[in-house]
Every structure is written in C-alpha cells, then in structure tokens.
C-alpha cells in the first residue's frame, strides 16, 4: 500500500457512515473533537462524541436581526449555515486565567497559569471560518511580536500569556451547500471555495437514496487520518460537482461588500453624516463583536478574594462598543455610540489592512444576523458611499 | 504584626423589600471570613447589637418615600465615610416608583381606611437624588457575588470589577442562544446592565431589566424594533420598561409615552 502522504491532493468518495469513523479516528488519535450541535434554538460549536451529536436534518433561515432553525427535507449533517458561535470560542476562550498570586505571610508568591490546552479537531469548518482562523492567527502573531518588544507596556499581559495558545487544530472543512441571506464571503474573497489551511475538506452529496461525502485530502496529517477510512475512488464528475456547488453558492449571495481602497474610503468619511444615523439605531450592546469570528479585543481583570490571600489576573473578551474599553486617564475617549460604531467599522474594514495585512471581515454575516436590531454593515457601507447629508 | 483597626460597616434600610441586604446574609460561605475583616457595626437584619458611628462603609438599601426618610438619609451620609447604594430601589426608586407616574393621593384614598394617617412623598426616588453616593450597585435584587466584590474591593482600595456592559455579554458568555434573534422574544437585555448572570434568557424569557439601563442605553431603537419586528404594542412596551427601574432614564421616558394613566386604574376598577 502506498504511504499516507501520497494521498495528499487526492479526492475520494465515502459513504456518509464514514463520518462516524472519521470522528472516531480523530478521537483515537487524541483529539478533542468539536463540531456543530443543536443547542436550544441554534447550532453551536461544542464537543461532539459521535455523528449522533451532529444537527442532522436541521437548517436555518437568516436575515438581518433574525435566525430561525428549520427542519430540512433531507437528512444532511451540514445543511445549516453559521450560528452565533465561531471557532474563536475554542481558540481564544472567553475567560482565561493569566496568573495567580498567593499570600505567604507578608509577601506574595506569583505563579503563571498552567492551563492545559487539549489537542483539538474542528469538524465542519466553513471556508469563511478558515479565513477567520487565519486572520486570528495573524493577529496573534502581530500582537505577540509587538508585546515582546522591550518598550511594550503590556508585555506581561495579554499576548505573552502562556495559557490558551493551542497547537494548531486539526481542521475538517465542509463546503457550503447553500448560502444564508446574510452571507457575503464571495465579495470578500474568503469563500465559498476554500483557501489553503484545512487538513480535509468534505462535500456532502445527497442524491435520492445515496448519501455520500467527497473527501479532499489537503495535508499529511489529513492523509494519515484518512488512511484509516474505507476510501472509494472518486469519479470524474465529483470534482466538477464540487466546483458547480461552489459556483451556485457564490452566485446566490445577494449581499456584497466592495471597497476598492478601504483605508482611503474610511479616512475620507470620518465625519460622514451617516455615522449619526447608525448611532440612532445601534444599541452598543456588543453582540456584533461577540459573534464576530475575528474580533479579538480583551480586557484584564484583577481580582482579590475575601480572605485577601489570593489575587488573580484574568483576561476576558471585551468590546470596542463598551464605554470602559476606551477609558484612559481622564475619561473615555469614545463616549458616544457614534464614535464606537465608527471605531468598529473603520478598524474592521479599513485600518485592519494596515495593521494585519487583510480585512478583518470575512463575510460570514454573523454580525448582521445576531444584531438584535438588524444593523447590516453591507448596507451601512453603501450609505457611507453616498454623499454626506 | 499589629492589626490595624477593623473598618466598620453599616447597613441601612429605606423603602425596600429587604431582599438586597438579605443577599449579604446569603453570602453564607464567605460571611464569617468577611466578619473577620470588617466589623458589622450596624446591621439590624443580622444583629441588634449596634456599634456607634461614624462608619467606614455604609450600604444603603431602599428608596426615599417619606419626609422622615428624606431627613434620615442626610444623617446616614453625615455618619458615613463611603456610601454604597444597593439595588434598584436605592438606585432608581424601585418598583414603588411606579407611583411617580400617577397620583399618590388617589392611591392612598383607595388603599387605606384612614388616609390622614399616611405621610408620604409624591415620588419614590433613589438615594443619589438626595445625597452624594460613592458607588451604586445595581440589581433587583443585587447579585451577592457583586456585593461581595464591592466590599472586598473597598477593603483593599481597588476599583470593583463590575462591568457596565449589556446583559448580552453574559448571555454570550454562558452560551445562551439570543432569544430575541432566534425566537423573536422581546428582550430588555441589550439595554440593561449585566450582573445577574443573564438568568432569564437562559430559561427562554426576555430580560426584565432588573439591573437598570446600561450606559448609553438606546431604548428608543430597541422599542422601534419591538414594534416593527416583534409586534409589541405600546401597552406591552410600557409594561416591559416600567418595572423595577421604571424611574431610571431612559426607561422612564421611553415607557411613558403615550402616558401611563392606566397605572392605578386596575386598582380602582
């Protein structure tokens, strides 16, 4: 038999039963398997043990400020679009202990947090989500490089935290079979076709009585796992099927975000009247940044216990929509909702390029669907393109 | 090592249900430890033994509803170095501030056999309307962990970790699917300050706004969405906004249009 690495770059056809074997193979290899699960009224990304945990037969309907789970007419495992959860929940936990100090008589002894990060396998990653994971890794690289410079004041805080920087997870991608109304990855060039980075990319194919997956092997470790599965050769039309599906999903996207020169676009519109208009609708509740797969801002919380014997420093998700986020000596820099929304959008779509070499937006549409009042950044950008009032 | 003199804590009650100061007694596991660090000098709900003031930390529960209470709070302030109000009553007048939208004299004539015995103010107001308040802890009732945090932070002289963010942040933290977006339930969460742990949405109920408005709460925008997308009537809107923090802006004015004449009507009918 040929070695596993020979499989890299090939495409195979497997019956849908093999999905269970894939999950088992990953678990046997020591991975904590994380994938979609129906929790309450949405699809969340949770630890899964078997195919039984997957949201089989569930789909959803989404629009600005609205998300509804619906039953599908078929039994697709991955027939849903994105929920509020993104993989950052696992890559960048919401709360993380940085260090703990214990009182020892009159002095204090500090110890670094020794949080064990498991080896993780993500099952059901979409193209835009892979793009988001890559943005996150890039952000981590840049912020770490910054904070390890000698003049960086925060060098003992966020980026150098020893905890919670996991080994790159094993990524099982899944090609989208449809777009939600909130999707606009096509115009962001982050999907629906996968960029590089996944170990395996699956395509779910349901025809009449046949329920199969096409499995594209992208990396050596993907090949090693796949070699444990009963692979069938793909037929000639399989790859063409994948291309057709991607084209169909791309064409069906009605929302778009096209800004040719983002830095200039926003720098010329910092005093645009439309910021006031958004501010009348925005709740500054932070849902958009919480569901965004690339928003990474955090705050540091120092705690002491009742006995005054233990002090802890925690890192927790924060948001540029919070008043305290821009609090410096003398007060908050961005006290109005107008300035906070402007900060978020201009950073996400504009200055992010300068800072991290790409847009901070991957076109997943989560911020549109999960905004309680349905604010749609693609529409806001359109309005900003119009002359100021 | 010489022990520094223990700081003195006093708990004061005004118009309230006692639920907030009960939260302090509810800190069962931590209470004895806390008692070693701060002297419970005046806490009638726990002990009738009172140590004279002045007090380093005064915790004030309840709203000001009578002329004598309006006097008493001035005295409490004079005897307190640091004054913290706890709960919706002390912060914004509480549920009893519903009277502020109606005619109190009418209530009195309906409720009491001898209305002339009743001496009350026309409005129920928070403590900060009367004296300087050093810190306001929100909630109906307050969260005992937050209450403990305020006291512990006071003892070491640091700022308490009490975020002013929306309830939505805590929903996301505990992994609750947004019931407003996924079920169309009108929810006060986006305009309400966190602190409760986002309990109600986790059980499929919209947030009741017990912790009062978050900073820069844009209630008008939320109400507009309720009307447009969730078929919430004007009457329902008023009932959602005018509960435990009815007198807190912007809940007060957003719930007031188009008038609240009906409050008290149920009693009369």
Q: How would you write the strand order of the largest sheet of chain A? A: 3-2-8-9-10-11-1-12
Q: For the residues shown, what is the average pLDDT of chain A?
A: 91
Q: Could you name the CATH topology of the largest domain in chain B?
A: Rossmann fold
CATH superfamily of the largest domain in chain B: NADH:ubiquinone oxidoreductase-like, 20kDa subunit
Mean pLDDT of chain B: 92
What would you note in describing this structure?
- The complex is a heterodimer of chains A (389) and B (269).
- Chain A folds into two domains: 242 residues, no CATH class; 124 residues, no CATH class.
- The radius of gyration of chain A is 23 Å and the shape is globular.
- The N and C termini of chain A lie far apart (70 Å).
- Chain A has twelve helices and 16 strands.
- Helices cover 30% and strands 24% of the residues of chain A.
- The longest helix of chain A has 21 residues.
- In chain A, the strands form four sheets. Chain A has an eight-stranded mixed beta sheet with strand order 3-2-8-9-10-11-1-12, with helices on both faces. Chain A has a four-stranded antiparallel beta sheet with strand order 7-6-14-13, with no helix packed on it. In chain A, strands 4-5 form a two-stranded antiparallel sheet.
- In chain A, helix 8 crosses helix 10.
- With 389 residues, chain A is of the alpha+beta class.
- Chain B starts with 6 loop residues before the first strand and ends with a helix.
- Chain B is built from 13 helices and five strands.
- A five-stranded parallel beta sheet of chain B has the order 2-1-3-4-5, with helices on both faces.
- With 269 residues, chain B is of the alpha/beta class.
- The C terminus of chain B is likely disordered.
- The radius of gyration of chain B is 20 Å and the shape is globular.
- Chain B folds into two domains: 150 residues, NADH:ubiquinone oxidoreductase-like, 20kDa subunit (Rossmann fold, 3-Layer(aba) Sandwich), CATH 3.40.50.700; 102 residues, no CATH class.
- Chains A and B meet through strand 5, helix 9 and strand 13 of A and helix 2, helix 6, helix 7, helix 8 and helix 10 of B.
């Amino acid at each position: 038999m040929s070695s596993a690495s020979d499989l890299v770059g090939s495409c195979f056809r497997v019956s849908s039963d093999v999905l269970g074997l894939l999950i088992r193979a990953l678990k046997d290899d020591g991975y904590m398997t994380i994938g979609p699960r129906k929790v309450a009224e949405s699809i969340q990304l949770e630890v899964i043990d078997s195919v039984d945990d997957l949201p089989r037969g569930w789909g959803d309907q989404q629009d600005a400020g609205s998300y509804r789970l619906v039953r599908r007419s078929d039994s697709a495992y991955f027939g849903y679009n994105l929920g509020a959860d993104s993989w950052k929940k696992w890559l960048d936990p919401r709360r993380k202990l940085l260090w703990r100090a214990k009182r020892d008589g009159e002095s204090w002894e500090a110890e670094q947090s020794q949080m064990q990060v498991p080896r993780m396998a993500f099952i059901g990653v979409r193209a835009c989500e892979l793009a988001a994971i890559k943005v996150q890794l890039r952000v981590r690289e840049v912020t770490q490089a910054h904070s390890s410079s000698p003049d960086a004041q925060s060098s003992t805080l966020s980026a150098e935290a020893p905890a919670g920087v996991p080994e790159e997870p094993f990524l099982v991608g899944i090609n989208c079979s449809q777009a939600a109304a909130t999707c606009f990855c096509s115009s962001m060039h982050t999907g629906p076709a996968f960029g590089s980075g996944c170990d395996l990319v699956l395509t779910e194919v349901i025809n009449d009585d046949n329920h199969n997956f096409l499995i594209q092997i992208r990396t050596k470790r993907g090949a090693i796992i796949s070699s444990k599965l009963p692979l069938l050769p793909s037929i000639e039309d399989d790859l063409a099927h994948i291309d057709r599906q991607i084209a169909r999903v791309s064409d069906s996207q009605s929302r778009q975000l096209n800004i040719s020169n983002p830095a200039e676009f926003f720098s010329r519109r910092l005093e645009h009247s439309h910021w006031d208009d958004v501010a009348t609708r925005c709740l500054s509740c932070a849902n958009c940044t919480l569901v965004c797969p690339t928003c990474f801002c955090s705050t540091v919380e120092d705690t002491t216990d009742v006995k005054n014997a233990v002090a802890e420093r925690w890192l927790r998700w924060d948001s540029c929509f919070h008043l305290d986020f821009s609090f410096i000596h003398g007060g908050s820099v961005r006290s109005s909702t107008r300035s906070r929304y402007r900060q978020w959008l201009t950073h996400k779509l504009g200055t992010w390029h300068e800072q991290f070499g790409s847009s901070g937006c991957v076109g997943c549409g989560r911020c549109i669907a999960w905004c309680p009042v349905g604010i749609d950044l693609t529409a806001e950008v359109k309005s900003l393109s119009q002359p100021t009032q | 090592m010489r022990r520094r003199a223990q700081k003195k804590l006093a708990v004061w009650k005004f118009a309230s249900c006692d639920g907030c100061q009960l939260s302090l007694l509810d800190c069962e596991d931590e209470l004895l430890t806390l008692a070693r660090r701060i002297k419970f000098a005046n806490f009638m709900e726990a002990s009738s033994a009172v140590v004279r003031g002045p007090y380093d930390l005064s915790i004030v529960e309840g709203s000001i509803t009578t002329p004598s209470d309006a006097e008493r709070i001035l005295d409490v302030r004079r005897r307190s170095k640091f004054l913290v109000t706890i709960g919706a009553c002390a912060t914004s007048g509480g549920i009893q501030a519903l009277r502020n939208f109606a005619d109190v004299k009418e209530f009195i004539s309906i409720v009491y056999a001898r209305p002339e015995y009743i001496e009350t103010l026309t409005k129920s107001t928070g403590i900060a309307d009367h004296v300087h308040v050093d810190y306001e802890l929100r909630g109906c009732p307050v969260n005992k962990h937050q209450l403990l945090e305020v006291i512990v932070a006071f003892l070491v002289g640091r700022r308490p970790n009490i975020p002013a963010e929306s309830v939505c942040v805590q929903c996301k933290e505990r992994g609750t699917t947004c019931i407003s977006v996924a079920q169309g339930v009108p929810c006060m969460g986006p305009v309400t300050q966190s602190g409760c742990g986002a309990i109600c949405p986790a059980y499929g109920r919209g947030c009741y706004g017990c912790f009062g408005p978050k900073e820069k709460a844009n209630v008008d925008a939320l109400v507009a969405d309720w009307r447009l997308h969730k078929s919430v009537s004007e009457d329902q809107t008023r009932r959602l906004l005018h509960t435990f923090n009815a007198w807190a802006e912007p809940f007060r004015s957003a719930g007031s249009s188009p008038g609240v004449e009906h409050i008290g009507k149920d009693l009369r009918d």
